[in-house]
């Protein structure tokens, strides 16, 4: 039997794994490689306090007692849950609780790691089995609901099992926010979308018996039914596997018990291995035996442990920039700039220059960036000259909040040094850069 290398960060100390080549493989995959594909499960959200409701100590056990249910946890997530009033009530109660908990929760260190990799343009795709929306609320990891391509590009995050943030009509597939129901009546609301429009037309013209409008239900894929967005998801998987060239494939925080997710990993893993890229398992427990042969490296660890290790390493080496060569508008976000970076060789391996996001460079090598703009007559002047159509105001983005006096924040801007900070009202900052306010408050609390 082929032996799969294992890095055990649960029982081994930092000292014991120091210098372990498998640790380098793992960190290289996160820090250096392009085209990262991540398949994530509930393990990346547990530290945010999101209950793992399908496990034996999860939310389900509480509900089972409250509603005196005789069914299993799987039954509660089965498509016929609505046929049984007691199960339906428990299911809907659970979704409501979950919705509230997700709204309260903050993204975990692992989410923020994915965000920073996405910002650097190195994340090819995040396939998430999570319905909590902690990933997709980060701008860099956003998605579309229903899943659609924009300008021929699929969103970076693909929600495999739907989301607790939306409801969909059973009849006309209209999608609405779940929020009003979560704060309102217990009963599932009727649709006011296309099917309700049809009813009005019927009433007026043909005098048919009025059609009954569809019922809205949480847009969460259940067992024994076709998952939401399944056709679009198949197209993305096909695109990622056959057209794009997947780099490292990372499976994190999941047992990979759902057959669809398992097949997805098999397809991507095959292509990644053909490309010479690693296929890495990250979870506190080993993969089950039916996944034998799938992974090139097994890492036993909590997701956040990996995030901490990657961030520690990034701070030291990844922004070891040789020089900054050129710049352009970000093709996906014309208001933001990207800088062409020449990287130093790593372990004797040369890397081609590549574009990186300006704020990522500012984070790692601020002085280089300020000098880069200074050499070009100043950032504001350079941008106005090169992209005159860009409204002067739109080129400014908050880099970090540095200080606070009462209801005003001291703001440092992307591409500008701390010599050019300004004071802005808290109200304005909450509006334009809530994530920066959050980051500042978190830092203050530590
Ligand atoms: Zn409808």
Walk me through the structure:
It is a single chain. The model has no long low-confidence stretch (mean pLDDT about 85). The chain is of the alpha/beta class and about 450 residues long. Helix 6 (about 110-120) crosses helix 11 (about 305-320). A hairpin with an 8-residue loop joins strand 15 and strand 16. Helix content is about 35%, strand content about 20%. The site of zinc ion has 10 residues, from helix 8.
Which key terms come to mind for this protein?
NAD; Rossmann fold; metal ion binding; binds zinc ion; 446 residues; three-stranded antiparallel sheet; Ssirtuin_cat_dom; OB fold (Dihydrolipoamide Acetyltransferase, E2P); 37% helix; 19% strand; alpha/beta; 16 helices; seven-stranded parallel sheet
| Rg, Cα atoms, Å | 24 Å
The SS-based structural class is alpha/beta
Distance between the termini: 48 Å
The CATH superfamily of the largest domain appears as: TPP-binding domain
Task: Set down the secondary structure blueprint.
Layout: E1 6-8, H1 14-17, H2 21-31, E2 36-40, H3 59-66, H4 73-76, H5 85-104, H6 109-119, E3 123-128, E4 157-159, E5 162-169, E6 175-177, H7 179-182, H8 194-206, E7 216-220, H9 230-243, E8 249-252, H10 259-274, E9 279-283, E10 297-300, H11 303-318, E11 323-330, E12 333-342, E13 354-357, H12 358-364, H13 366-375, H14 379-386, E14 398-405, E15 408-413, E16 422-425, H15 426-432, H16 434-445
Parallel strand pairs: 1-10, 2-3, 2-8, 3-4, 8-9, 9-10
Antiparallel strand pairs: 5-6, 5-7, 11-12, 12-13, 14-15, 15-16
Helix pairs in contact: 6-11, 9-10, 12-13, 15-16
Zinc ion is lined by residues 169, 171-172, 174, 191, 193-195, 213-214.
């Amino acid at each position: 039997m082929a032996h799969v290398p294992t890095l055990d960060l649960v029982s081994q100390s930092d000292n014991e794994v120091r210098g372990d080549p498998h640790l380098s493989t793992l960190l290289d995959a996160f820090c250096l490689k392009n085209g990262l594909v991540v398949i994530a499960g509930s393990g990346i959200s547990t530290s945010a306090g999101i209950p793992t409701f399908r496990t034996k100590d999860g939310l389900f056990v509480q509900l089972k007692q409250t509603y005196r249910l005789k069914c299993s946890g799987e039954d509660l997530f089965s498509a016929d849950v609505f046929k049984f009033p007691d199960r339906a009530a428990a299911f809907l109660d659970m979704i409501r609780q979950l919705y509230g908990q997700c709204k309260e929760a903050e993204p975990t260190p692992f989410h923020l790691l994915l965000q920073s990799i996405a910002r650097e343009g190195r994340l090819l795709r995040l396939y998430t089995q999570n319905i909590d929306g902690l990933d997709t609320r980060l701008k860099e990891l956003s998605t579309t609901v229903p899943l659609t391509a924009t300008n021929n590009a699929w969103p970076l995050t693909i929600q495999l099992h739907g989301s607790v943030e939306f409801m969909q009509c059973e009849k006309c597939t209209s999608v609405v926010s779940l929020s009003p129901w979560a704060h309102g009546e217990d009963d599932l609301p009727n649709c006011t979308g296309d099917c309700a429009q049809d009813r009005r037309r019927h009433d007026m013209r043909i005098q048919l018996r009025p059609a009954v409008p569809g019922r809205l239900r949480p847009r969460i894929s259940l067992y024994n039914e076709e998952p939401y967005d399944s056709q679009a998801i198949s197209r993305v998987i096909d695109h990622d596997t056959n057209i794009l060239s997947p780099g490292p494939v990372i499976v994190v925080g999941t047992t990979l018990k759902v057959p669809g997710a398992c097949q997805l990993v098999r397809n991507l893993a095959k292509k990644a291995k053909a490309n010479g890229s690693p296929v890495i398992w990250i979870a506190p427990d080993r993969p089950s035996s039916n996944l034998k042969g799938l992974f090139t490296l097994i890492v036993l660890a909590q997701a956040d442990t990996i995030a901490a290790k990657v961030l520690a390493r990034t701070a030291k080496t990844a922004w070891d920039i040789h020089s900054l060569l050129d710049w352009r508008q970000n093709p996906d976000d014309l208001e933001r700039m990207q800088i062409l970076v020449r990287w130093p060789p790593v372990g004797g391996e040369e890397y081609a220059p590549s574009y990186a996001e300006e704020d990522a460079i500012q984070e790692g090598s601020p002085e280089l960036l300020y000098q880069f703009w200074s050499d070009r007559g100043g950032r504001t002047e350079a941008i106005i000259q090169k992209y005159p159509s860009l409204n002067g105001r739109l080129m400014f983005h908050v880099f970090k909040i540095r200080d606070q006096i009462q209801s005003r924040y001291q703001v440092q801007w992307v591409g500008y040094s701390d010599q050019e900070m300004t004071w802005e009202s808290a109200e304005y900052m909450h509006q334009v850069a809530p994530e920066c306010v959050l980051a500042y408050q978190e830092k203050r609390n530590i």
